[in-house]
Each structure stands twice: as C-alpha cells, then as structure tokens.
Model the fold of this input.
Amino acid sequence: MNDVFKSHNDITEEDFTKLWEKGLFVFDTNVLLDLYRLPESAKKDLLNILNDNKINNRVWLPFQVVLEFTHNKLEAISDQKNKFNTVRTIINDSIDETKIVYDNLFEKLNKLQLKKRHSAINPDEYIDDNLFKESLNKLNKFLKELDKLDAKQPDVNNKDSLKDEISKIFKNKIGASFTKDELETIFTEGILRYKDNIPPGYKDRDKEGFYLFEDKKIIRKFGDLLVWKEIINKAEKENLEFIILVTGDSKEDWWQEKRGKKLGPRYELLNEIYFKAPNLKIFHMYDTSGFMQYAKQYLKINVKDQSIKESKDLIEYNKLNEQITTSENGIISIRESIRQISKQISIKIILTKGFEDSPFIFIPNQLFQFVLMEILSNVFNHSFDKIVTISLDYDENYLILKFKNKTNNFKTESNKFRGKGIEFISSVFNGEYGYISTELDDKFYQIQLFIDKKFTSTPKRVVM
Done:
C-alpha cells in the first residue's frame, strides 16, 4: 500500500537523513532574490551553506529560475536602495511630529499657568525640555548614518558582486530552456490546469507579461509550472531518488497547509512527480528558513539562529506583500493608500500613531480611494499650512482614522482639488462600512473615519 499511495506516506527520520545525504537541492527565484534583501549576516550564512562542499555538488537551478532572476534582480537592488529614502521620510516626519507634540504640550500647559494658579502640580519635574532636544539630536544623527550607509549600498548601475557569487555557486548546474514546441504544449496544458486549480502556479493566473529568450516568448503566469516541469524532467531523465525544493514562495498552490502550518508539498504535486518519475523515492520542500535550520542540523554547518529568524521574518514580509497586492483578496493597505493619494495633492501628511502594525481593510478600493481624496483635498482647500496629521486608533467596534489640520476659517484658496465634499462622502460611506464624523473649533478641523472592525485586519508585525 505504501508504494501505491506514496504521495501520502509519512517521512521518517531515516528518510530525512537520506534526503540530506543524497538529495538534489533545487532553488526557486525567490530564494536568490531574497539574498539581496536579507540582513548581511543572514545572507552570509545562506551563501556559506550553498558553498559548503557537503552540498555544493548537489545544487541545481531550473532554467526558468535563472531567467526570472536575471530579469528581476535589478528591481530587488532598486528596492533596497529606495528603502533609504523611505526611512529618511519616516525619520523626517518623526522629527516634525516630535516638534508638533512638543509645541502643543507646552502651549497647553502654559495656558494653565500652573505655577501661579496651582499649589501642587509642577510638570517641570517630569517634562524636561532637554529630553525633546536629545530625541531630535538622535534622529538627526540617524539621518547622517543613513547617508553613510546609502553611499555604500550598491545601486543598479554598480557592479553586482552578489550575482557573480551566485553564478559561481551554480556554474554548470543550470537546466536547459524548453523548445518553442515544448513551451506551447506546457502553456496549453497550463490553461486547463489553472482552470481546475491544479498546482502549481494557478495563483499566478492573473500575472501579465512575458520574457523573451532567443526566439521564444515565455509567458510569466506559467513560470511556476515551467519550474515544476523542469524538476519532473530532471528527476525522470536522471533517475533521481531524492529531491528537495527550496522555495521562498508561500502560496497555497505549492504548500499543503493545515491550521496555519506548512506540512509539505501539495498532494497533487507528489502524485504527479511520483507518477512521472517512478524511481523517485522522496520529494520534499523547505522554505528558506527551514532549509537553513535543517542544514545546521543534518549537515552540521554553522548557521546562526538569528539568521534563521531573519530569513523567516523575510518570508512573512513577502507573504504579507503578496496578500496586499493580490487584487482578488480585496485587501487594502491604509498606509499605502494614503501614500498614493499624497502624490496627487500638494499637502504634507504626518502619520502620528497607530500605523506600526500595518492595518488593512477589506472594502472596495475605489470607494476608499475616493473617500481619502475628498478628505485630503479638503485639507488642501481649507488648511492655511497644508499640513494634516493622521492617527489611527481602535475602540470596541471600529478602527478610527483621524485627520486633523489647522483651519483658515474655511476660506477656500483654490478650486484645484475641490470635489463633492464631506457631506457627500458621508452619505456614500455611512451605514455599510462605518461612518464619518467631523469636529471644528477655532484652530483645528478634525475628520474621523470610523471603519467597522469586520472590514479590518491587523497582520502580525514583521520587523525587518
């Protein structure tokens, strides 16, 4: 029975030992690209594993992986470089926020004139002007350190020494491209597979574009399927007995997952590869952090626990980004939506609190973008300094977005960004998704967007 239902067999400790002693290690594109994103120490540990003589003669890359890597590595490099400007913006905003908090605090306390009017309350013992100045000094020092690190960070036009090291590791260990006829056959099969949600790759069915190689047009949405076909072909032609796929892909069209835990490859994958490559005894999968962890255990390679954790954090971060950008999930990043709208309106936005846990909402993107545009265009038209502070909070039933700006007594300066008005968006938004409230005093105007908690999600924070 074990041979008939091999795809459902449990893997024993003896099996794992043989896998690591004899198995071919196949790596997908995400593992290579993540080498550009991992912290330096974790990157070195992963490269040390790949270079170790206990494994280096058993590593292999499908041709499709190399194709995707060469086309996407510049984006990974650019993303790392752009992070410096992102962090600079956050730090500069924090400096502005600190100054606003400082000014507001002392303005309100000074109005009370506690030294003259109260015998017991003395805030001077606890609120030290030097603490604020010290915080600002540290933030400014951080900005200078960022400039130094930025100068050392490779850019897209610099020599790519990491690519050179990867090329050396996998020299003569790369698969061959499919022929044009083979590609057409796989693409035709892929259409049918994706229609029936047969793994792998069906989660990429909405990907657009293609790669050109020689006289071939390689359609991007079939990338995972091409990798899978190459693995099967190699197993079949070389009568391999043990294969381990190391992947940074966390989507359901690769992994058998129950109760939030990855149990291994999808049964459909095991069924297919065991049927087409009958000499194969075990096919197994690890994500990058699992690969590093078990390389330490089975191959006795020195790998720091912190490197394993950082690799796991990166996988979680990538998974979160995948969720955000998958349109069929209807997931909206509040912070990203605010950033996109801010590019269209000439105002300064200061995020003051609550955005650390990256909240997301599940409402129509077009509606949320419309509401944000109306609120922020209201700031443009009615705030004399064109600055809005946005905070995020929760009560028992709602996620609350608070937009606060100084007023100019609602004297409109320009019609450039005038829309339908707060009353109109209230009539559109109120009821189904939550409601909108406004407050106005002599100095400030505040709009509160109450979003029903059933339309919200706060994923686990990932520290990068």
